[in-house]
Automatic annotation (TrEMBL), chain A:
InterPro entries according to UniProt: CDC50/LEM3_fam
Glycoprotein found in the keyword field: yes
Highest classification ranks of the organism: Eukaryota, Metazoa, Chordata, Craniata, Vertebrata
GO cellular component, one term: Golgi apparatus
UniProt-recorded name of the protein: Cell cycle control protein
Chief subcellular location: membrane
Region (Disordered): 1-29, 158-177
Family: Belongs to the CDC50/LEM3 family.
TrEMBL record, chain B:
Protein name: Phospholipid-transporting ATPase
Location in the cell: Endomembrane system; Endoplasmic reticulum membrane; Membrane
Annotated EC: 7.6.2.1
Membrane-spanning parts: 277-302, 329-351, 971-991, 1003-1024, 1054-1076, 1083-1102, 1114-1136, 1156-1173
Assigned keywords, A-Z: ATP-binding, Endoplasmic reticulum, Magnesium, Membrane, Metal-binding, Nucleotide-binding, Translocase, Transmembrane, Transmembrane helix
Reaction(s) catalysed by this chain's protein: a beta-D-glucosyl-(1<->1')-N-acylsphing-4-enine(out) + ATP + H2O = a beta-D-glucosyl-(1<->1')-N-acylsphing-4-enine(in) + ADP + phosphate + H(+); ATP + H2O + phospholipidSide 1 = ADP + phosphate + phospholipidSide 2
Binding site for Mg(2+): 397, 399, 914, 918
Gene: ATP10B
């Protein structure tokens, strides 16, 4: 071929400047290493009946016992639930619920009798449950100031009037808006979460067969996470150890009846480290949720914590839920290592285990019936 | 000075010397409008790097999308996360890219600076000599002196060289990779050239990128014009060799030089997969919008169902809640922000990374390395690696691609007598012998093959070649290192034919000088020796030219004007003795003493030719004693068998072009003083001109014979031109050469004018041997479902023969030969054949069998078949053909064929070739492959991949192509899957949070999840996975079919993966949901097991896809899991209030103390992956080896029969 006319359009890169006669003898042979030649020793999972079938059986054999264990554990957990929303005329709380709003300052009390069919042996956990309450709404979740709750005194300062100055001097985070301040006074604790804190008071009475009503002691500490109480939530430390003085200059959230420093009489459970408050601030994941309210400690004696019998639940009805078609519940539950009562996981494990086992059997049959031909072909080849 | 404007605006430029203006301010310089020689290839400047780079990056749509999202996030009504955090991913991606760009630009800057500061010599009027300056100081109009082995700083018009012949040798390796030396001649023969005396004006064309073309003329003050072409232009970047020094006038400088104009950077091609990918991205966008729409609508309904404002609905700062419709409208955009990672932005970055890695592996493959030339495969196109796995049509050149293009002189026919050169054939067979012996060990049969290509038995021929191909399977021919092109013993040593040799020695026994009779035999060999452009060099002194000694030249150079050029330039025969004292033209200023008389034996002569045919012919002539001793532009010396040296004056050389298909040299015979034109060229053009009828027919018969054997044929002819005719012609020629308009055509016309009425001397047959393993490779490619076409410029007989030899055509094939002179015949043939094919296919007996049809078509017929009205029929026909051979096609036709097939059949095409005539075709195909062979680097420069042997195509396509394709396709699908699966977790949550765009996973962890925890494994998967081992891919070429057409990456595969992602995310969301239903779980605790099991699911899903696990895989997979836990634990331990609204403090820690967490993770992972695992593996357990689940449905049938062979191979 002696063609001479062409157009070299694409030429790559620069003129390479190499010294005269230099660099032409360099050996460009690629290195013969396993990595560069893509010959690294490799494990190729060969999926034959011999390796796949045991996998199914093993899954089955492991899952089914776990499932049974979970199911049994879950079944052993005793749980009692009572709805006291009061939207039904027959409900004792109907009157309280009927015309109640956030603006009411006077609390309304209602009494709900109930009966426990079984004795509750170990510690009993008392929850309040809310339904159709979207604590996970994006704006709601954001509406808090963690640094304020962590005891940052600056977040409690009065916001300066000019916006420029306010940026330097911290005040409740803008995430708290519009629950950040009232009349230029910061709200403590700020934000919608705190503002909407659950404020019903639940009391439990055991109706002795002899007619007296014995109040059941409810422990209000130990219900929040340890890390929350000791690390995340802290009261602001001012010059004064008195909480009232520290929160001087702040206002209480709109919906609250008392300021934050009067949540409890116990100084270790007051202010931001009040455990009811901490529990509420840990926003629930789903619109129907329960939150730990009190713990009924098991006494040392042999008697069950909550013997079989009649009880009365006395509610200070403060929290309106009818407006958003919510419901309020009181739940008594014992717990196990897997938490509260939940049959789902056990059933799921049993089902999956059985399906795997069944599949294994089916495949084994198929393999035996039809796989032989293939196997022999393999061998003969 | 109205010239200035004219120079800028017109088609032509006129340049004058800078010297008269030296020292004047810039405004007075005549050439100030032209760029200086300093080059700047950097894209950015230091000051404006950031804005310019950002501008550049925002050209990518993906980046704009990302930035749009960030901006959305800054709108308070819409934002989903803290806007500052949303900036992080885009910043990471932009800054990574910017860093890469900055580094590349810095490298460019460094090399620019190095180039600009290279030293050179510029003439200074003040100092009356050449002074040392830098490259960047060179300006248009300067006089630059270049010395031996120095790189030329700008495009120079050669005015003077130290060589007495006015010749300067340059090596253009830097430009086109060709290492043979090229000769350049000075424009005017000033023996004592003084820059200051140059007073002409150079008129030349505007800068262009054609390296082989330049036109211009020097206009002297007396209005005399002297033409100047590319043969006088020294190009920037070339190296001066064998010439002590040369002076040139700067024509183009800096970025206007031809080399810089050619420097357009790496090519950008878009792969087929990428085009498909964009469609799928579009699907993802639609999916995203649907999901966001659902979210917005859901939010609207949710808000509307609310009777009064509940306490959890937070009004904006104003304190007043917006209307539900407006809130939902905002919610739509918030959802886009939340679900943004559905569009895999990191995919583009990952694909780029993976492709770089794939190219790394391809270039490092030792099997694609050629010892002989020490060259690896070169990947020039960086982003079409996966196209290699989807090729359906290969268009191959024949010469140099299928064949070695190592031309071996085999036989010749002189004046109607055939000389079969049996002895030479035996020698060639012996050369192959060592390999045959080696092969004996492996093959039990080793038939001695005394002669190949014997005329007697044609059948044996075919067998021979097959045997030949297989025998050479394992060894490279012994002719290793060759300093000079075409100089292996195979080609250089020709054993003369006994009969012919005797005849020659008889004729030339008497002194030729006084025998006036021009013997045809002598003429024949003289033509072989003279009619070429071979450059002679000495074997002992590499790269130094033999040239006529200075004193011989001095006697006849009173050349002040060019107009009288060659006529007076001829040397009287009396001076031939002077030629004998040939000396070396030394490179160094201190020449080695000429006293050590270099022995001018024929052994240490080396010939460097631009085409191997020429070299083969010169070596053949040498074997008969006609030794080409030296060649300068003006003269050729040949030693005759008698020992006498003839010095021919070369009057003109009519170079080869593809239209004339011949080349000629016009010389003046030193003894007879005749003007003789020696021509060689393709047979069809030479015969039929004035000649004796019987010789012509006999020669024609021989030619046909040669062609049948697969030999390349050339006819040799001569013509004696009378002085009057020559004089007239030379005037025409000169005018044509000086012409600016239509110069090529005019020059060609003059050539045709002279090459008339030639006398046929004889013909030669040159063998072009098949490359190693060509039949084997073609066989494998064909089994892989690739149709191989051969497009060649050779004649049909040669092509068909090679076709049989390389297994392209087989004996039982039905070969359709299309050679039609008229359109109507062509139509008829097409119609008949198509009808026949249709009938054959309709015949119920032929349901299972397919007829193997092959088509042989010549260039003329092809032209007609490609005409618009026949095109469809032609395409329909070739679709049925197993192999197509196009002969006698021009480069343009080659590219036309490729384009037609590519566009009409919508297939992936690959073109492979080695020569300049393949450049068009290489550029037209989806993938162009250049073979860096014997014909320079033009094909390689134009190609996407450059290999050194045709056989490398097999591994490149079958192994690397398949791997690159499946790896990338699987990785892309996995990427989509991964993002959909993860994003859907968030989407399902919207149903439980009032469609308020809440994320139950901390935003930092979400970023980390995509950026760190799950980014490396897919890249590793795309780089290193091997679905099938290389051995098996080579052994079972059918496996290649998985990539063709739609391939692995298809609509269904994509949607199966998306559906799987939906399913898995459902499992991953609802298992924790049911477990934690109505419990005191908080939001981020709820998200933690989901995030964790999503990680496990996504990684385990990949583990199912990975077909071979190496150490690297284990490290990366386990590392990713470890990284997740370490980073998340550290983050949730350290971060108490650092990320205000969401607070992950101590969540993972408390979860990890809880057995439920593990139980949930295990259950979700198992349930999510069970279907995929089951479908994949339970099927394989029943005996169907399925390589990849999603494809299962598509290629089940084709793979079924493979399974048996595969399992067989595995055992």
């Amino acid at each position: 071929m002696m063609a001479s006319s062409y157009s070299a359009k694409d030429e790559d890169g620069h003129i390479t400047v190499s010294g005269p006669g230099g660099g032409t003898l360099r050996n460009k042979k690629p290195e013969n290493t396993a990595f560069k030649q893509q010959r690294l020793p490799a494990w190729q999972p060969i999926l034959t009946a011999g390796t796949v079938l045991p996998a199914f059986f093993i899954i089955g054999l492991i899952f089914i016992p776990i499932g049974i264990g979970l199911y049994v554990t879950s079944n052993n957990i005793k749980e009692f639930e009572i709805d006291y929303t009061g939207d039904d005329t027959s409900s004792p709380c109907y009157n309280c619920a009927k015309n109640f709003s956030w603006n009411n300052t006077k609390s309304c009390t209602c009494t709900i009798p109930f009966q426990l069919d079984q004795p509750y042996e170990s510690n009993v956990f008392m929850y309040y449950g809310l339904s159709n309450f979207y604590q996970n709404h994006r704006r709601y979740v954001k509406s808090r100031d963690d640094s304020q709750l962590n005891g940052n005194i600056d977040s409690l300062k009065v916001g300066a009037s000019s916006p420029m100055a306010s940026r330097k001097k911290k005040k409740p985070s803008k995430e708290c808006e519009p629950y950040a301040s009232i009349d230029n006074k910061p709200i403590a604790p700020c934000g919608a979460i705190a503002n909407s804190m659950f404020n019903d008071t639940l009391k439990l009475f055991y109706n002795d067969p002899n007619g007296t009503s014995v109040p059941i002691p409810l422990t209000s500490t130990g219900i929040a996470w340890w890390t929350d109480k000791h690390v995340k939530f802290r009261n602001p430390v001012g010059t004064n150890s008195n909480l009232t003085a520290v929160f001087q200059g702040t206002v209480k959230p709109v919906n609250w009846h008392r300021p934050v420093y009067e949540l409890d009489t116990d100084p270790e459970n007051n202010g931001f480290i009040n455990e009811d408050f901490i529990v509420w601030m840990r926003t629930a994941a789903l619109p129907t949720f329960r939150k730990l309210y009190r713990i009924i400690q098991k006494k040392n004696n042999m008697a069950p914590t909550l013997p079989r019998g009649n009880y009365t639940l006395v509610v200070d009805y403060n929290y309106p839920v009818r407006s958003f078609e919510g419901r309020k519940r009181m739940i008594l539950s014992t717990i196990s290592w897997m938490g509260g009562k939940n049959p789902f996981l056990g059933i799921a494990y049993i089902t999956v285990g059985s399906v795997c086992f069944f599949l294994g059997v089916v495949l084994l049959v198929i393999h035996h019936k039809y796989g032989n031909r293939n196997n022999s072909a393999n061998i003969s080849n | 000075m109205g010239r200035k404007n004219w120079a800028r605006e017109n088609e032509l430029r006129s340049l004058e010397s800078n010297l008269p203006y030296e020292g004047l301010e810039k405004g007075k310089q005549p050439n100030r409008y032209f760029p200086s020689n300093a080059i700047k290839t950097t894209k950015y400047s230091l000051l404006f790097f950031i804005p310019m780079n950002l501008y550049e990056q925002f050209h990518r749509l993906a980046n704009l999308y990302f930035v749009g999202l960030v901006i959305l996030n800054f709108i308070p009504e819409v934002n989903a996360f803290q806007p500052e955090i949303a900036l992080i991913p885009i910043c990471v991606i932009l800054s990574l890219t910017a860093m890469k760009d900055a580094w590349e630009d810095f490298r460019r800057y460094q090399s620019d600076r190095k180039l600009n500061n290279m030293p050179c010599f510029i003439y200074s009027r003040k100092e009356k000599q050449f002074v040392e300056r830098h490259w960047k100081d060179v300006r248009v109009g300067d006089f630059v002196k270049v010395v031996c082995n120095e790189i030329i700083p700008a495009d120079l018009l050669l005015l003077y060289t130290s060589d007495p012949n006015g010749v300067c040798h340059i090596e253009t390796a830097n430009l086109d990779g060709e290492t043979n030396l090229k000769q350049r001649t000075a424009v005017s023969g000033h023996p004592e050239f003084e820059p200051e005396s140059f007073n002409g004006i150079l008129v030349c064309e505007k800068p262009n990128n054609n390296l082989n073309h330049f036109k211009g003329y020097v206009e002297k003050p007396d209005k005399q014009k002297v033409g100047a072409g590319i043969e006088s232009l020294l190009l920037r970047g070339c190296t001066v060799r064998n010439t002590d020094h040369a002076v040139g006038f700067v024509v183009y400088a800096g970025r206007e030089t031809k080399s810089m104009l050619n420097n357009s950077g790496p090519r950008y091609k878009r792969s087929k997969l990428e085009r498909r990918l964009n469609i799928d991205v579009l699907f993802c966008v639609i999916l995203l919008f649907t999901m966001c729409l659902i979210g917005a609508l859901g939010h609207y309904l949710w808000l509307n169902a609310m009777p009064v404002v509940p306490p959890y609905l937070v009004p904006p700062t104003s304190g007043q809640l917006d209307r539900p419709s407006l809130t939902s409208f905002y919610m739509f955009f918030t959802m886009i922000i939340l679900l943004q990672i559905l569009i895999p932005i990191s995919l583009y970055v990952s694909i780029e990374l993976v492709k770089i890695g794939q190219i790394f592996f391809i270039t490092n493959d030792i099997d694609l390395y050629d010892e002989e030339t020490d060259s690896r495969i070169q990947c020039k196109a960086l982003n079409i690696t996966e196209d290699l796995g989807q090729i359906e049509y290969i268009f191959s050149d024949k010469t140099g691609t299928l064949t070695e293009n190592k031309m071996v002189f085999r036989r010749c026919s002189i004046m109607g007598t055939e000389y079969p050169h049996k002895e030479n054939a035996i020698r060639l067979a012996v050369l192959d012998e060592p390999e045959a012996e080696e092969e004996v060990i492996f093959n039990q049969h080793a038939q001695p093959l005394p002669t190949r290509w014997s005329l007697d038995s044609e059948e044996a021929n075919v067998e021979d070649t097959h045997g030949h191909g297989s025998r050479r399977r394992s060894k490279v021919t012994g002719n290793a290192q060759s300093d000079v092109a075409f100089s292996s013993p195979l080609e250089t040593e020709v054993v003369p034919d006994g009969k012919l040799f005797q005849k020659i020695s008889r004729t030339s026994s008497g002194s030729l000088s006084h025998s006036q009779k021009t013997d045809a035999y002598l003429d024949f060999f003289l033509a072989l020796a003279i009619c070429n452009t071979v450059v002679v060099s000495m074997a002992t002194t590499k790269r130094r030219r033999v040239s006529v000694s200075p004193q011989a030249k001095h006697t006849n150079t009173p050349l002040e004007t060019l107009s009288k050029d060659s006529e007076e330039n001829f040397q009287p025969s009396g001076q031939t003795e002077g030629v004998d004292t040939t000396g070396l033209q030394p490179c160094s200023p201190h020449p080695p003493s000429l006293s050590d008389e270099p022995a001018l034996t024929s052994d240490n002569l080396r010939y460097e030719a631009e085409s191997p045919d020429e070299a083969a012919l010169v070596y053949a002539a040498k074997a008969y004693g006609f030794t080409l001793l030296s060649r300068t532009p003006d003269s050729v010396s040949v030693r005759l068998p008698s020992g006498e040296v003839l010095d021919f004056e070369v009057l003109d050389t009519l170079t080869f072009d593809s239209n004339r298909k011949r080349m000629s040299v016009l010389v003046r015979h030193p003894i007879t003083k005749e003007y003789v034109l020696y021509t060689k060229g393709y047979a069809s053009i030479l015969t039929g001109h004035g000649n004796k009828k019987n010789i012509a027919t006999v020669t024609q018969r021989h030619l046909d014979c040669y062609a049948k054997e697969g030999l390349r044929t050339l006819c040799i002819a001569k013509k004696v031109v009378s002085e009057a005719v020559y004089k007239r012609w030379s005037v025409d020629r000169k005018n044509a050469m000086a012409a600016i308009e239509n110069r090529e055509r005019l020059v060609m016309d003059t050539a045709v004018q002279l090459e008339k009425n030639l006398t046929l001397l004889g013909a030669t047959g040159i063998e072009d041997r098949l490359q190693e393993n060509v039949p084997d490779t073609i066989q494998a490619l064909r089994e892989a479902g690739i149709k191989v076409w051969v497009l060649t410029g050779d004649k049909p007989e040669t092509a068909v023969n090679i076709g049989y030899a390389c297994g392209l055509l087989e004996d039982e094939d039905l070969v359709i030969n299309m050679a039609a002179v008229f359109q109507i015949t062509c139509t008829n043939i097409l119609d008949c054949t198509l009808e026949e094919v249709r009938r054959y296919n309709a015949d119920p007996r032929n349901v299972d069998t397919t007829q193997n049809m092959s088509l042989v078509i010549d260039g003329l017929t092809l032209d007609k078949a490609l005409s618009p009205d026949l095109l469809d029929r032609f395409v329909a026909l070739v679709k049925h053909c197993r192999a197509v051979l196009c002969c006698r096609v021009t480069p343009l036709q080659k590219s036309r064929v490729v384009k037609v097939i590519r566009e009409k059949l919508k297939v992936m095409t690959l073109a492979v070739g080695d020569g300049a005539n393949d450049v068009n075709m290489i550029q037209a195909a989806d993938i162009g492959i250049g073979i860096s062979g014997q014909e320079g680097m033009q094909a390689v420069m134009a190609s996407d991949f450059a290999i050194s042997h045709f056989k490398h195509l097999k591994k490149l396509l079958l192994v690397h192509g398949h791997w690159c394709y499946t790896r990338l396709a699987n990785m892309i699908i996995y990427f989509f899957y991964k993002n959909v699966a993860y994003v859907n977790l968030l989407f399902w949550y919207q149903f439980f949070c009032g469609f308020s765009a809440t994320a139950m996973i901390d935003y930092w962890l979400m970023i980390f999840f995509n950026l760190f925890f799950t980014s490396v494994p897919p890249i590793m998967f795309g780089l290193m996975d091997k679905d099938i081992s290389a051995e098996m891919l080579l052994g079972v070429p059918e496996l290649y079919k998985t990539g063709q057409g739609e391939g692995d990456y298809r609509f269904t595969t994509f949607w199966v993966s998306i559906l799987d992602a939906f399913y898995q995310s459902l499992v991953c969301f609802f298992v924790p949901y049911f477990v934690y239903q109505d419990s005191d779980i908080d939001m981020f605790t709820f998200g933690t097991p989901m995030n964790t099991s999503a990680l496990f699911i996504i990684l385990m899903h990949l583990s199912i896809e990975i077909k071979s696990w190496t150490v690297v895989h284990w490290i990366i997979m386990l590392g990713s899991v470890a990284l997740y836990f370490i980073v998340t634990l550290a983050y949730s331990a350290v971060c108490v209030t650092c990320n205000p609204p969401s607070n992950p403090y101590w969540i993972l820690q408390s979860q990890m103390e809880d057995p439920m967490f593990y139980l949930i993770c295990i259950l979700s992972t198992v349930v999510a992956l069970l279907p995929r695992y089951r479908v994949c593996h339970s099927l394989s357990s029943v005996g169907l080896k399925i390589f990849n689940c999603p494809e299962f449905w598509g290629v089940f049938v084709t793979r079924f029969d493979l399974c048996t062979s595969l399992t067989a191979m595995q055992l």
